[in-house]
Amino acid sequence: MVFASCPIDSGAANKHMKKTYTGGCHCGAVRFEADIDLSLGTLRCNCAICTQTRFWPAIVATDAFRLLEGESELSEQMLDTRNSHYIVCRHCRVRSFGVGHSPETGASAYGVNVTCLDDVELDDLANSPIRYVDGHRGTWHVARTAIGS
Fold first, then answer.
1. Is residue 128 a part of any domain in this protein?
2. Which domain does 46 fall in, by range?
3. Tens digits of residue pLDDT in 105-123
4. What is the pLDDT of residues 36-47, one digit of tens each?
5. What is the DSSP pairing of strand 74-77 with strand 85-89?
6. CATH of the domain at 140
7. What pTM was computed for the model?
């Protein structure tokens, strides 16, 4: 997973929504906790794997993610040459998070699948800006504000 490092202009009207969320996979074997500020936005990628699995991540720093349970229950695949790690529960095959890096900065981060959060408010998701990235063409580093832009 390669992350776009272009910032989102969330506007002055958006309040900061940094919260500690818990979440996990469908069967419960994998559990995590993450400090996420949804006012900073989420990503939507149009590559085949993200589209077909409906992966919708919020990007968090490595120190803002904590795997609570299930490290031994994880299975990892590397599907491309971009050092992308697709991590799934080996039982239910749900990808509740991924690990990637920014090509510009080299910084690592977690992509936490917001659909796997236990206690996220739907209004918080609806108010979170979405950054569209073009994984289909391999230009993840170019953030877009809308599909086709």
1. yes
2. 18-144
3. 678 899 999 999 998 999 9
4. 999 999 989 888
5. antiparallel
6. 2.170.150.70
7. 0.80
